[in-house]
């Protein structure tokens, strides 16, 4: 893939003060006087459980959270989790992507080789599927693309179900054929949806009140530190055991992508005199910056070279380095281990690795190389921001 409801409940429970039987008909009706119980305490979960028991078809959810365990595709190239679609549930493996907003996967009617290589969704087997009929198409920075028709069904993530518009791919480009994931789960803003007017999963989950908090918290474990194990997307909550110190909330400067201002780049605490707007993108593997910033960073690394065929290369021995590069946002410098710049061995015997930082991008992309060093909370409040703090153990 890219390398580069909650139901409003009564405010109080009212107790009947006069419930004596009526012996004579009253032509004007009989008033039952109600009084407020001063000792009542809200228990929304208990009230919703009572409603669910009485009306089992409703299945009302209180604001809650849901965890999606992740699989790390070696070498930290992408992370995916399982998502349930339809009734009964059809389970697909999706790449959660803050750099896009569409949710899509192959339709059972798709006959391209890429679709055939993956699990597809059969809308005819879902009792909750609803036709939409609009066409959609999407393309990504690596040249991959997909297209098809829109529909609607229940999408359940970490046990949190939401009725959601979905893209059913009837065509997929060949780049997807070798990818282990079945499709994409966009977590960007609805302004970059492929079809105007479509709301994202988070839009719908927030509107339905099914999330305790309007956040998605992300822990991407590196192979180097965590053996790629334990990764998770946490919808509606924040896991404070995953990071050290306090979260710094960086304001979103433009909604669409999760765009923020990067005020400085450092190497071992020394400013490199570089700054830019950038995005924090779980769907991009590496860190992509401007050519000047990439040159400045690699200028501190002996043996690094900008190869015309492979981009920036660094010695694979860098994997044992204790140096740090940093990106300063909202007054806080967030580190990335230089060891993670030794991303993947070229395999040609040169001892060189593709660097985890590449150039060529005016709008910088802080991809997984950044996120696997820092816990990130994508907060979709009225003033969206990204909360960032160093991961425990890095």
Automatic annotation (TrEMBL):
Disulfide links within the chain: 110-115
Catalytic activity: Hydrolysis of proteins with broad specificity similar to that of pepsin A, preferring hydrophobic residues at P1 and P1'. Clots milk and activates trypsinogen. Does not cleave 4-Gln-|-His-5, but does cleave 10-His-|-Leu-11 and 12-Val-|-Glu-13 in B chain of insulin
EC number assigned by the record: 3.4.23.21
UniProt KW Thylakoid keyword: no
Record flagged with keyword Zinc-finger: no
Pfam family, one: Asp
Peptidase A1 domain sequence ranges: 79-389
InterPro entries the UniProt entry points to: Aspartic_peptidase_A1, Aspartic_peptidase_AS, PEPTIDASE_A1, Peptidase_aspartic_dom_sf
First and last residue of the signal peptide: 1-19
Keywords, ordered alphabetically: Aspartyl protease, Disulfide bond, Hydrolase, Protease, Signal, Zymogen
Catalytic site: 97, 281
One function term, GO molecular function aspect: aspartic-type endopeptidase activity
Any single GO BP term: proteolysis
Family: Belongs to the peptidase A1 family.
Protein's name according to its UniProt entry: rhizopuspepsin
Source species: Entomortierella chlamydospora
């Amino acid at each position: 893939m890219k390398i580069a409801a909650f139901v409003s409940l009564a405010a109080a429970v009212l107790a009947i003060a006069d419930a004596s039987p009526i012996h004579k008909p009253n032509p004007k009706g009989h008033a039952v006087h109600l009084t407020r119980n001063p000792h009542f305490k809200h228990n929304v979960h208990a009230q919703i459980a009572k409603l669910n028991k009485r009306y089992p078809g409703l299945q009302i959810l209180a604001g809650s959270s849901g965890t999606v365990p992740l699989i790390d595709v070696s070498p930290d190239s992408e992370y995916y989790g399982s998502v349930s679609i339809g009734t009964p549930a059809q389970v697909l493996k999706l790449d959660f992507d803050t750099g896009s907003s569409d949710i899509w996967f192959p339709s059972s009617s798709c006959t391209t080789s890429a679709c055939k290589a993956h699990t597809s969704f059969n809308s005819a087997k879902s009792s909750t599927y609803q036709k939409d009929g609009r066409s959609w198409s999407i393309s990504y920075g690596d040249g991959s693309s997909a297209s098809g028709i829109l529909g609607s069904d229940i999408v359940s993530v970490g046990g949190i179900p939401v009725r959601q518009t979905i893209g059913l791919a009837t065509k997929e480009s060949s780049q997807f054929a070798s990818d282990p994931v079945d499709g994409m789960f966009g977590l960007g803003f609805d302004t970059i949806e492929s079809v105007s007017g479509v709301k994202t999963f988070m839009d719908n989950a927030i509107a339905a009140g099914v999330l305790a908090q309007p956040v998605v918290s992300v822990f991407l474990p590196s192979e180097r530190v965590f053996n790629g194990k334990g990764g998770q997307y946490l919808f509606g909550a924040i896991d404070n055991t995953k990071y050290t110190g306090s979260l710094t909330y960086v304001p979103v400067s433009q909604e669409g992508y999760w765009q923020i201002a990067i005020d400085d780049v450092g190497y071992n605490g020394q400013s490199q005199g570089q700054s830019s707007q950038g995005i924090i993108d779980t769907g991009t593997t590496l860190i992509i910056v401007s050519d000047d910033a990439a040159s400045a960073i690699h200028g501190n690394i002996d043996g690094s070279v900008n190869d015309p065929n492979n981009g920036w290369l660094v010695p694979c021995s860098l994997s044992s380095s204790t140096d740090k590069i940093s990106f300063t946002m909202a007054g806080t410098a967030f580190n990335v281990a230089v060891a993670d710049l030794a991303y993947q061995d070229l395999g040609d015997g040169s001892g060189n690795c593709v660097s985890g930082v590449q150039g060529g991008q005016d709008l910088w992309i802080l991809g997984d190389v950044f996120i696997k060093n820092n816990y990130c909370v994508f907060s979709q409040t009225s003033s969206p921001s990204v909360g960032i703090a160093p991961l425990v153990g890095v």
